[in-house]
């Protein structure tokens, strides 16, 4: 998956977590300030934040011609890859039903060896279909899952998108569950494992009387409009960072439990950004996530770890991401996701003038990504190209929106 750039336009926990900033808007909201000097400043900041959030939450109507232009662009191999990806995100966030149809057509109508086929973009189209929450997409996603002409990463993403749509209004959960069960024994390991995790998510969705989880709510606010493939462990089960690390690194534990451990760590990282836990706690989270990039037994899990690191944008995980990307024995899907996360980290390190040594990390990360643009594996090569564009976006003070996401 390409990390959704839309949430990068807000002040986020990723910034606070990595920079150890003491004041952020989520902490000042609702506080009472006695200082007559500070109060107007805080009020102004809250107004700005409200305007930003309103702008993100309310996309403008997109004309049909513009939507069709994006749809044509994503399947045109003569268009630069970065422009095709930008058009993809325009369709991802457009509210019109036609956007769903255009994304679906790219997944179902274009298959290898067509020159328009691209594993990175088509797996991203499947991801977007799951995230949009339109149950109309179930049929084309099923078709993509069944089509063995697609690379495994595309079929994996179709399965994950189906599981994501299980929580959408009007979803036929029984049908989706039957589909995922059918492919539990797929010869493509990533597909089979995705179905295993997806069935775990559906079982969780069907549980009654779930315990409220403040950390999960905070993470949902930090990464809006994102459907996670797995929940965290329920809050009633106390687990230390060391316990979560052990579950993640254990190949003998059920894969869904390892995913739950990963998202528990992700949520703990977000909570740490707003004051929960001290420096030792934060360092333990960083170490656990970095170590999990080499977790044994499941390339699918390792690729999800890399995606989470891209979400969080923690600069200190850069060396671990570089190691994964440069390991030519690693699964391409893991190297792909490591490249995308490294683009986030490289841009953030370049933009961070205060953190000691981050400029050298940014330089090293860009060197690795530039080298990756010549990688013989197409998925890795394309990912490095998009990661460099993402790094430019994150580091830029001029560009407000990475992709052609429609806004008012």
In what range is the share of β-strand residues? under 5%
Q: What percent of residues adopt helix (DSSP H or I)? A: 55-70%
Radius of gyration: 20 Å
Oligomer status: single chain
Q: Which CATH class of the largest domain is shown?
A: Mainly Alpha
| Number of E strands | 0
Q: What overall form do the CA principal axes indicate?
A: globular
Number of helices: 20
CATH architecture of the largest domain: Alpha Horseshoe
Count of the domains: 2
> What structural category characterises the helix and strand content?
mainly alpha
Task: Give the CA-CA distance, first to last residue.
Answer: 26 Å
Low-confidence parts: 7-47, 49-57
Q: What fold name stands as the CATH topology of the largest domain?
A: Leucine-rich Repeat Variant
Q: Order of helices and strands, N to C?
A: HHHHHHHHHHHHHHHHHHHH
Mean pLDDT: 86
For the largest beta-sheet, the strand count, sense and barrel status come to: none
């Amino acid at each position: 998956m390409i990390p959704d750039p839309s949430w990068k336009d807000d002040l986020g926990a990723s910034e606070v977590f990595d920079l150890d900033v003491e004041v952020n808007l989520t902490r000042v909201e609702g506080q009472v300030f006695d200082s007559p000097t500070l109060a107007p400043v805080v009020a102004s900041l809250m107004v700005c934040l409200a305007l930003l959030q309103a702008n993100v939450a309310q996309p403008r109507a997109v004309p049909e011609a513009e939507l069709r232009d994006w749809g044509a662009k994503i399947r045109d191999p003569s268009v630069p890859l970065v422009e095709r990806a930008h058009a993809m995100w325009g369709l991802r966030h457009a509210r019109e039903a036609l956007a769903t149809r255009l994304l679906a057509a790219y997944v179902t109508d274009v298959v290898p060896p067509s020159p328009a086929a691209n594993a990175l973009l088509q797996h991203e189209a499947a991801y977007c279909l799951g995230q949009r929450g339109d149950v109309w997409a179930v049929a084309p996603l099923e078709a993509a899952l069944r089509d063995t002409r697609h690379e495994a990463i595309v079929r994996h993403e179709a399965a994950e998108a189906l599981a994501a749509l299980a929580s959408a209004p009007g979803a036929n959960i029984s049908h989706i569950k039957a589909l995922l069960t059918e492919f539990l024994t797929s010869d493509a390991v990533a597909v089979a494992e995705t179905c295993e995790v997806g069935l775990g998510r559906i079982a969780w969705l069907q549980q009654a009387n779930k315990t409220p989880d403040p950390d999960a709510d905070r993470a949902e606010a930090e990464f809006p409009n994102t459907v996670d493939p797995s929940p965290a462990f329920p809050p009633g089960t106390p687990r230390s960072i060391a316990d979560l690390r052990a579950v993640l690194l254990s190949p003998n534990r059920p894969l869904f439990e390892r995913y739950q451990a990963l998202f528990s760590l992700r949520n703990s990282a977000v909570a740490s950004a707003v004051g929960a836990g001290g420096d030792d706690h934060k360092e333990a989270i960083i170490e656990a996530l970095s170590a999990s990039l080499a977790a044994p037994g499941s390339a699918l899990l390792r690729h999800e770890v890399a995606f989470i690191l891209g979400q969080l944008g923690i600069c200190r995980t850069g060396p671990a991401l570089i190691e994964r990307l440069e390991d030519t024995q690693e699964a391409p899907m893991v190297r792909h996701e490591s490249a995308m996360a490294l683009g986030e980290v490289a841009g953030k390190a370049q933009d961070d003038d205060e953190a000691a040594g981050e400029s050298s990390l940014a330089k090293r990360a860009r060197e690795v990504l530039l080298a990756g643009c010549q990688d013989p594996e197409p998925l890795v090569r394309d990912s490095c190209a998009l990661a460099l564009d993402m790094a430019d976006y994150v580091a830029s003070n001029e560009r407000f929106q990475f992709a052609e996401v429609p806004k008012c």
